[in-house]
Write a structure and sequence with these properties.
Elements (H helix, E strand, L loop, with lengths): L1 H5 L16 H14 L7 E5 L6 E11 L4 E8 L8 H17 L3 E7 L3 H9 L3 E11 L5 E10 L5
Parallel strand pairs: 3-4
Antiparallel strand pairs: 1-2, 2-3, 4-6, 5-6
């Protein structure tokens, strides 16, 4: 995690958290994640290369709105693996699991408008663009930014 994406400011520039300064930052967050697995509603996965099992990213449910049977997903992948279809394949698999095993009705994702590549992943996965949330996001610098929101319904993929 540290070597493949967390320490690289370029890799996390469209995320809400800063690049890890050293391996101890990564250990701290990994321990927090492990602790969250005690919660039955924790959905967090590593993204690995099929041939080597090298960890190159993560994808997880960052918010659950139970009354609406909705969840929101967040993801990150090493820039070394951008534009190779890996995130699209990963997102499709996670959406399938969340719809068919967990039972969500709606899945949504957001991205900073400065990062249209993330939106292209969402569209490739069948998500619908819903609009811009003005100054909804906060960059890892603390600056507010506009975010685009996409969603997909379970009925969209039947």
């Amino acid at each position: 995690m540290f070597d493949n994406w967390a320490k690289d400011p370029e890799n996390v520039k469209y995320l809400s958290w800063q690049a890890h300064k050293d391996i101890n930052d990564t250990y701290k967050i990994l321990n927090e994640w492990i602790d969250k697995y005690k919660n039955k509603n924790c959905y967090k996965w590593c993204i690995t290369l099929k041939d080597t099992n090298e960890v190159i990213g993560s994808i997880d449910v960052i918010e659950i709105i139970e009354i609406r049977s909705t969840c929101e997903i967040g993801y990150v992948i090493s820039k070394k693996y951008w534009n190779k279809g890996i995130m699209t394949e990963t997102l499709r698999a996670v959406m399938n699991y969340l719809f068919n095993t967990v039972g969500f009705n709606r899945i949504q994702l957001r991205h900073m408008t400065e990062n249209p590549a993330s939106g292209r992943v969402m569209v490739k996965c069948g998500m619908k663009y819903e609009g811009i949330l003005r100054q909804y996001g906060v960059k890892n610098t603390g600056e507010r930014c506009d975010t685009a929101i996409y969603s997909i319904l379970k009925s969209d993929i039947l």
